[in-house]
Structures are given as C-alpha cells and as structure tokens.
Design a protein that fits this description.
Elements lengths: L6 H16 L6 E7 L6 H6 L4 E2 L2 E10 L5 H7 L3 E5 L5 H14 L4 E4 L10 H10 L5 E11 L4 H18 L11 E4 L2 H4 L8 H11 L4 E8 L12 H21 L24
Protein name: Glycosyltransferase family 2 protein
Family: Belongs to the glycosyltransferase 2 family.
Organism: Nonomuraea harbinensis
C-alpha cells in the first residue's frame, strides 16, 4: 500500500512542477494568491492586478489549494502563474507555499491578496509603497483606517476586539489584524514561524512584530465578496478559532529566545518599529 504524501512531499512536487512550467526567475514583485473553489472570481481578481508597479514588473502566483472546480483554469486564462496543489490543506499552507515559490524564484517583494475580490487592486501600489521606500519591512492594509463595505456588525466588532488584543500583546498599535492585502520584503516570509493551516493572518502579523520588523498600516478598502461564500465558518466559529491562533502565536513568540531581525538573516540593520499611520 502506498503511504500518504507528507506536506513536504506535496510542497516539493508542487514546486518542481511550477518551476518546470515557469522557470525560477521572477520579476521583483510577486503577488501571491491562495485560492480554493473560486472559479467565479479569480479571473477578475487576477485581471485587476497591475502589471507594473513603480517601474517594476509584477508576477501573479495563484496557489490553487485542492480546488474541485475550474479555479486553476480560470487563473491561467487570466494570465496568472498557477501552482495547482492536489490536496486541500488550507489558506495558510497555500500561502506558505506561495511565499517560498516567490522567495526562491528571485522576487524581492511579496504582496498577498485574496481570490474572492474583496480587496481593491488599486490599493496594491499604496500598501507596497512604504516597503519600496524602505520605511517598513511589512505593510498591511486596514479597513479601519480606510473603508469597508461589509455590514456585519459582529465581524466589525471582532475586528476592533482582536486589534485591541494584539496591540496589547505586542506593544504596537494595530487597527486591523486580519486584512489580507499585505506587502513585505520577501526575506521576511522566511524569517518568521508559520504553521497555521487557516486564520494565518494574525500568526504572520504577530510574528513580524515580535521579531522586530518594522510594521505599518495603510488605509485600504474592504469590499463585498464578488462571488461564493467564505470558507472560514460563521462568526462564532471564526471568532473562536481566530482567538486560539492569536493566543497560541503570542505565547509561542513570548517563549522564543530573543534574537534580532538581522540575526535571522532577513531584516534591516535597524529593528525600529513604525507605528500605524496613514499615508
């Protein structure tokens, strides 16, 4: 009987297939999207991504996380570089694979956005700007500083509650912990510990702050989902699972031996943090 593939096996096979199709020489900016059964929205999402930002070419990598529909085909049709993983392992696993593909293929900057069209592609340049200017290592959009079209009062309250908790835990004011449109220097993704299969946004944010990377927030827009439904569960399930990730990541980072970002091999010479601010 054939033994099941391990996550390492799955990643290795997916990376080998991706490299055989697209090579290993990406432009400076890689936009990474994790997608699961998003055939109705992924094409428009990819089409909206700018081909050039501040004179630098971009490449869009869509990691298809075990989809059973035409997500991969629609992403390819729109011009994305597609890494089609046969197993559904969660958004966190898909993003980690995307980070590695971008980082090891020469991208200097990584931007993440969602496949469902909730983030305005016009915000990509704005969120990436402080990283390109050397003012931050990691920038995240904020619907609180910007605008949101959603009307779910429970979700809105949750955004503020988790922002308060993470601000208290980390000592840095954060207004939006789960915004999926983010930009970072590629090396940052290899310097933090990422293990969560889902609800990974808070794990990454707490990790980069805890390790002394410079973090800023940028006003951005949260739109209504273009098609389909959320894969993260209802409000109670989402809140419970998200809070577990927040607390677990904070405790893990507290127990980690102190180290400077430069000793991790990927941060700037100054570990100064930048408070959340508008641009």
């Amino acid at each position: 009987m054939t033994s099941p593939e391990t996550p390492v096996d799955i990643d290795a096979a997916a990376m080998a297939e991706f490299t055989s199709q697209y090579g290993s020489d990406l432009p400076p900016v890689a936009i990474v999207i994790a997608a699961y059964n998003e055939e109705r929205s992924i094409g428009a999402t990819v089409n909206g991504i700018p081909a050039v930002i501040d004179g630098m070419e971009t490449a869009t990598i869509v990691v298809v996380d075990g989809s059973t529909d035409r997500t991969a085909a629609e992403a390819r049709k729109a011009g994305a570089m597609v890494c089609d993983v046969p197993a559904n392992r969660g958004q966190g696993a898909a993003l980690r694979l995307g980070y590695r593909l971008a980082r090891e293929s020469g991208a200097r900057y990584i931007v993440t956005t969602d496949a469902d069209g909730q983030y305005d592609p016009a915000d990509i340049k704005r969120v990436l700007a402080p990283v390109l200017r050397g003012e931050a290592d990691f920038a995240t959009g904020s619907r609180v500083l910007g605008r949101q079209e959603t009307h779910d009062r429970v979700r809105r309250l949750g955004v503020h509650v988790f922002a308060f908790l993470i601000s208290r835990f980390t000592g840095q004011r954060i207004t939006d912990t789960s915004f999926g449109l983010r930009a970072m220097r590629a090396e940052v993704t290899g310097a933090v510990t990422l293990t969560q299969p889902q609800y990974q946004s808070s794990e990454l944010l707490i990790g980069v702050i805890s390790r002394g990377f410079r973090v800023v927030e940028v006003p951005a827009t949260m739109r209504l989902r273009a098609a389909g439904t959320t894969k993260k569960g209802g409000n109670l399930v989402y809140g419970y699972r998200y809070s577990r990730v927040v607390l677990g990541t904070w405790l893990r980072e507290r127990r980690r031996p102190a180290s400077s970002p430069s000793s991790a091999g990927s941060a700037p010479s100054s570990p100064e943090r930048v408070s959340a601010k508008t641009k």
